[in-house]
Amino acid sequence: MLDRPDIEDAVIVAAVRDGFGLDVAQVVFLPLGADFNSAVYKLVAADGAAYFLKLRRGDFDEIAVAIPRYLQTQGIAAVMTPIPAMGGQLWTELDGFRLILYPFVEGHNGIGVELSDRQWRELGAALRAVHDAKLPPDLARHTPRETYSPRWRGILRAALARSEASAYDDPAAARLTALLKARRTEIEQIVERAERLAVPLRRHPRRFVLCHTDIHAFNVILGADDSLFIVDWDNPLLAPKEHDLMFMDDGSDEGMWRNPREDLFYQGYGQTGVDPVALAYYQVERVVVDIAVTCEMVFAGAEAGDPRVSDREQGVQYVVNRFADWQEPYV
User: What is the CATH classification number for the domain harbouring 72?
Assistant: First the structure.
């Protein structure tokens, strides 16, 4: 979220004090990320310690915090895990938001700094440990399973229809409408390709593992002390490993890995066969989801008169960047 929520700093300070027992001296809003439903802050406590606070609104599933917590107990140190609230929960609540508190890591994400050879190997080893993890039965029952759902393809088709039938005064929505009209053929080809690839995956199920599902460069934090952390566990899923591995194979999108060192990554991950059908499906479906999510956010925000213009403009720019990098195997 680029536009700051309409919540006073004093309200955040009180919520963190009451929920986590933390005496906050400074609140700094960080205009980061592409998630329209999440705002993030740097907090500085009275003793000088720094923390990262995430405010999450809308749909929230406890597994988004329970799974990273469990993985860290299994010795996967690269998984960033939330700090428990005083009641033992991994979050607290404030005005429709869930507040999730983390240690603050001084450093950069994988966009700002190139991973070292050691860090590529460490990322591979950490992701392999995630894929090999055995969730306890209760947590496994509550973790979504891949269904190759047509949901986002349907949303994108509806957005294409809306672009032909609607006009917007909102600049971001108008720009997105024009882009969808101009690129309609390519988008329809992508949707159709994703649907074709989903068929054999449904008919012949692959082995499912625990996947992060969004392991791109923004979600890997490199500490100033050369540490590495995997963050943003909002959408864990039991799915073929290719759901995560496709990020190492696809450098086409801003925010993914533009120059992935697959050789070093797989030194850490270890030998594995990669299913070309599953890999192609996730590469294409990712494009569908990215565009569809943006369409939902931009059109809904414009129609509701939502004042967070910067977020809508950033969303449209992501779609523009997708087409600037347009290449096989998408079409």
Answer: 3.30.200.20
Those residues with Cβ within 8 angstroms of residue 295's Cβ, 6 or more apart along the chain or in another chain: 155, 156, 159, 162, 176, 180
The number of folded domains in the chain is 2
- Tell me the C-alpha to C-alpha distance, in Å, between residue 313 and each of 35, 36, 142, 214, 299: 13, 11, 35, 22, 11
Residues 142 and 87 in one domain: no
193 and 275 together in one domain: yes
Least confidently predicted of 151-155, 196-200, 250-254, 290-294: 250-254
**228 φ, ψ (degrees, to nearest 5):** -140, 135
- Which neighbouring-strand residues pair with 107? 223
**CATH number for the domain harbouring residue 231:** 1.10.510.10
Tens digits of residue pLDDT in 6-58 = 899 999 999 999 999 999 999 999 887 667 778 899 999 999 999 999 998 87
Q: What integer pLDDT is reported at residue 70 of this predicted model?
A: 97
pLDDT per position as a tens digit, 250-283: 544 544 676 788 899 999 999 999 999 999 999 9
Same structural domain, 168 and 246: yes
Amino acid 167: pLDDT = 85
The pTM for the full model equals: 0.90
Q: Are residues 174 and 308 in the same domain?
A: yes
Please indicate, yes or no, whether residues 140 and 36 belong to a single structural domain of this protein: no
Q: Which of 52, 84, 104 is the last residue of a domain?
A: 104
| 221, 308 contact by CB (below 8 A) | no
> Of the residues 37, 71, 104, which one is the last residue of a structural domain?
104
Going by C-beta distance under 8 Å and a sequence separation of 6 or more, which residues neighbour residue 72? Answer: 79, 81
Question: Could you list the residue range(s) of the whole structural domain that residue 201 is in?
Answer: 108-331
